[in-house]
Amino acid sequence: MPFIADRLNRISASQTMVITGKARALKAAGKNVISLSVGEPDFDTPRNVKDAAIRAMEAGDTRYTDVSGTPALRKAVAERFHLDSGLDYKPEEIIVSSGGKQVIFNAMLCTMNPGDEAIIPSPCWVSYPDIVSLAEGVPVIVPCSENNGFKLRPEDLEAAITPKTKWFMLNNPCNPTGAAYSAAELKALTDVLMKHPHVWVFTDDIYGKLTYGGFKAATILEVEPRLKDRTLTLNGVSKAYAMTGWRIGFAGAPVELIKAMDKLQGQSTSNATSIAQAAAVEALTGQQDTVAEMAKAFEARRDMVVDMLNAAPGIHCLKPDGAFYVFPSLRGCFGKTSAGGAKIVDDEAFVVALLEETGVAAVHGSAFCFPGYMRISYATDTETLRDACTRIQHFCKGLL
Amino acid sequence: MPELAERLGRAPVAASVQMTIKARELRAAGKNVIALTIGEPNFSTPVHAIEAAHQAALKGDTKYPPQDGTLALKQAIQRKFKRDSGLDYALDEICASNGGKQCIFNALMATVNPGDEAVIPVPAWSAYWLMNDLIGGKSVLVTCPQNNGFKPRAEDIEAAITPRTKWLILNNPNNPTGAACSAEELAKIAEVVRKHPNIWIMSDDMYEHLVFDDFKHATLAQVAPDLKDRTLTISGVSKTYAMTGWRIGFAGGPKQLIRAMVNMQGQVAAGISTVGQAAAAAALDGPQEGVEEMRAAYKRRRDFVVESLNACPGIACHKPEGAFYVYPNVAGCLGKTTAGGKKLENDFDFCMALLEENLVATVHGAAYGMSPYLRVSTATDDESLHEACRRIMAFCKGLH
Fold it and tell me: Which of B285, B303, B324 delimits the end of a domain?
C-alpha cells in the first residue's frame, strides 16, 4: 500500500482513547458506567433555534453559501460581538466555519511557516498543539500552576516570547480547568503583548457565556483595543446554545487574515452547512433566556461537584469561574493502592482504576499537557453527578 | 500586522468565484446578467430529505457526531456503493465529510509529502491542483484533447508517472467538460496503474448520476477490483440530490487510508453537521425518481445548448456524456474584435467581453487547465439558457 504522509505522525495519539475505549467496553459488558468525559452540554438545542432551521430548509436555503458564511449570519455574529463585548467587527472581518476547530485550523495553516512558534498555556485542549504541529509550527507549552488558579502569569508569557513566536493562544474560560481571566488579569497579559508587535493573538472564547458567581468573562480586545489588528477572537454557538452537532464556529479578525482563511476554507471544505447557519442566526439574535438558565444549572452543579470532590481524601479541587469542567489535583492519592489492588502511580493509573473499579470515566490531566490532575465534565444531570462523586469519594476512601 | 504563511501564496482564488463576483457587481449596477458559472443544481432538495433533517433536529440529534459520520449515514453510504457500483465497503472503509471537497483535502493532507506528485488529467476542477499545491505537492497536468472527447488516454497517463507520483486523480464525469469514461476506457487506465503499485487512485464520481443517452457510469474500483485496496472512491449528495448547501460528501477506500483521513478530519473540523447527515441518509435511501427528472432536464438542456452554441460562428462545442457542463472551443473567435471594440486574444478576453457586452457570465478554459475554451453550466432554468444562447449568438455575430 502506498504511504501515508509524514505530517500525520505529527498529531499525537489520542490520550483520551484509552479511557473512552475502556468505558465503551465496560458499558458493552453491562456495567453501569457514568461518563464525565464529554465536552458538550447535556441540554438540547433551544426550540426556537430548531424551528429556524426547519424554516430555512423548507424555504429552500439548501444551496452553497458564501465560503465565509451567509451575510445574515456574519451580520448576526458582528452584532453579538458588539452586544456581548463591545467589539466592532464589520461583516468582512468575520468568518463562519464548520465548528470552532476549523477556525483554529484555518488560522494556523494560514499563518504558520515551518518552525514558527505558538505559545500555549497549559493545561490546554490538546487540539491546539496538534493543529500547530500539523501546520508545521512548534507548540511552546507554558504550564500554569494551580497556585495561580491555572492562569498564565505575565512574566511567564514574556519569558516564552522569542523572535519566532507567531501566536499566543488563550482559551478563556479554559478547557479543561474552567479558569477564567478577569479584565485586570487580561490587561497584565496584553501589556506584555503590546511590546511584541510580531505576535498574533488568538483568544478562544467559546465558553465565554458560561461563567458563574457573577464573574464577568472579559475578552482580549475589550481590555486592549490596540491589539485589534493582530487579534483573532473565536467564538461559536456549540457551548452557549447547546449546538455542538450543528458545527458552527466563527471568528472576528483583521480583514487580511479573514481573507486568507476564506481562501483556505474555500479549498478545504467551502461553506458550513446552510441550514445550521440559519439556526445559528436565530441562536445569536433570538431569545437568550436559555443561555442564562443553562448557566444557572451549571453553576449549581459546579458547586456540588467541587464540594463533594474536596470531601474525597487525597483530592484537592479549585472552584473555577467558568466552562463546565473542574480539574482536581490527584497528587494526594499517588503512591497508594486502590481497593481493587491497582497501584496509583500517576493520573492515568488513577482514572483507569477509577473507571474499572467504580464505573466513573474522567480524563487524566496528561491528555491536557498537565499530569497529576483529572478533568471532570459536569455537563451531566445532577443526580448522575451526585452518584459519580459518591463513587469517587468511596474510591478515594478505599486507597491504602 | 504579523505575516501570513507562505503556503497561502500557493492558493489563488478560484476563477469561477472571480467570475461570479464580477457578475454580481454588474447585477448590483442594475444589469440583467445571466450567470452560467455556477456548479450547483437549480433544483430543490427532495422533500423526504428535508423531512428527515426536520425530525433529526426535533428529536435532539444535535450533539457531537462521530468524526467519520453517523452510523445511519455510513450504512446508507454502504448500501449506495453496493447498489450503484457493486462495491463492497466495510463500515470502517467509509467516511463522510463536509462536502466532497473535504474528502479530497483530507486524502491529500493524509498522504502527500512535500514534492510528491499528483497526476491530474485536464481540463479539471482547479481545486485538485490548488489543494495539492497548497499542501506542498507537485501537480502534473495531463492534457486530454478535444479529439479524444476530453478523456484521458492511458498512454498519456503512463508518460506522466514518475517515481514521485503519489496520486492519479480521475473525475468521472468530469467538471468542466462533462466527459465520462466508459468501463472499457477505465480498464485501459487501470492497466497502466496496475504496473505502479505505489500510486493511489482517486475517483471523484460526484456527477455519477448525471449521465445521458444510455451511457453507463463506471468507476475504477468496480472495473479493476484488484486496485480497490489503493483506490479512493468519492461521491456525495450535492449534485445528485440538489443538496450543495448541506455539505455532505463521502468516500470509500482502504481502511488505513480512511483512518488517516478521519484522523485529519478530526483536526480540520471534527464531525459534520448532524442534521445534514440525517438529510443525506434519507436522500440516499429514499425514492430516486427526482434524480430521473433532474437527469431528463439536464439532458434536454445539454442538447439545446450544444446545438445552439454550434450554430454560433467561431464556436465548436463537443457533446459530452454527463454532468451539467459543456466546454465549447472558442479558437475560431480569437484574433477578432467585438462589437464593443475589444480585441480577443484568449479565452479570458472572450469571457470578459461576453460578460461586459452581452451580459452572459461563463468561466474561461484557462481556469481548468486548457484553452481556448469556456465552461458553460447548464444548471439554470431553460428560459435563461435560451436567452443566454441568443446573447452568445449575438456576441459571436458581432465579431469582426
Answer: B285
Tally of structural domains, chain A: 2
B102 and B32, same structural domain?
A: no
Choosing from B285, B317, B341, the residue where a domain stops is B285
- Domain closes at, from A253, A285, A317: A285
Ordered DSSP codes for A303-362: HHHHHHHHTSTT-B----SBTTEE--B-GGGTT-B-TTS-B--SHHHHHHHHHHHH-EE-
Claim to verify: residue B344 and residue B269 sit in the same structural domain:
no
In-domain check, residue A181 = yes
Picking from A114-118, A294-298, A367-371, B1-5, which range would have the lowest pLDDT averaged per residue? B1-5
What ipTM score was computed for the predicted complex, to two decimals?
0.81
Nearest-CB residue to A269 (from B64, B112, B269): B269
User: Measured between alpha carbons, how far is B255 from B71 in angstroms, rounded to an integer?
Assistant: 16
Task: Express the helix, strand and coil content of chain A in percent, nearest 5 each.
Answer: 45, 15, 40
The answer to whether B33 and B26 are in contact (CB under 8 A) is yes
**Does one domain contain both B364 and B306?**
yes
Q: Which residues of A touch B275 (CB under 8 A)?
A: 53, 245-246, 273, 275-276
Provide the residue range defining the domain that includes B169. 63-285
| A195-228 confidence digits (pLDDT tens) | 999 999 999 999 999 999 999 889 999 999 999 9
- Whether A86 and A211 map to the same domain: the answer is yes
* CATH number of the domain residue B324 falls in: 3.90.1150.10
Q: Which amino acid is at A99?
A: G
Are B223 and B321 found together in one domain?
no
Residues B251 and B344 in one domain: no
**Structural domain includes residue A204:** yes
Interface contact flag, A260 B13, Cβ < 8 Å: no
Query: Residues 6 or more apart from A374 whose CB is under 8 A from it?
Result: A327, A328, A330, A347, A350, A351, A362, A363, A364, A365
The answer to whether residue B1 sits within a structural domain is: no
- Examine the domain organization and report whether A274 and A296 are in the same domain: no
Which of B135, B104, B134 lies closest to B12 in space, CA to CA? B134
pLDDT score recorded for residue B10: 67
Q: Are B226 and B371 found together in one domain?
A: no
- With H, G, I as helix, E, B as strand and everything else as coil, classify residue A149: coil
- The stretches in chain B having pLDDT less than 50 are none
User: What pLDDT shows up at residue A198?
Assistant: 95
Cβ pair A245:B271 closer than 8 A: yes
> In angstroms, rounded to a whole number, what is the distance separating the alpha carbons of residues A109 and B7?
8
pTM of the model: 0.88
* CATH number of A17's domain: 3.90.1150.10
Place of cell 500500500: A1
What pLDDT, on a 0 to 100 scale, did the predictor assign at position B13?
63
Q: Do the beta carbons of residue B65 and residue B74 sit within 8 Å?
A: no
Question: How many Cα neighbours within 13 Å face the side chain of A348?
Answer: 13
Query: What is the C-alpha separation between A68 and A253, in angstroms, rounded?
Result: 12
Dihedral Cα A271, A272, A275, A278, nearest 10 deg: -90
pLDDT in tens, A238-287: 999 999 999 999 999 999 999 999 999 988 899 999 999 999 999 999 99
Give the angle subtended at the CA of B231 by the CAs of B228 and B235, to the nearest 5°: 110
Contacts of A3 in chain B (CB under 8 A): 111, 113, 166, 198
Looking at the fold, whether A237 and A326 belong to one and the same domain comes out as no
Alpha carbon distance A396, B17 (integer Å): 61
From A236, A257, A285, give the residue that closes a domain: A285
> Percent helix, strand, coil in chain B (nearest 5)?
45, 15, 40
**Helix (H/G/I), strand (E/B), else coil: A32:** coil
With CB atoms and an 8 Å threshold, state whether A273 touches B127: no
Pairing of strands B200-204, A374-377: unpaired
**Are residues B171 and B67 both part of a single domain?**
yes
Task: Supply the DSSP symbol for B250.
Answer: E
CB contact under 8 A, B230 and A2: yes
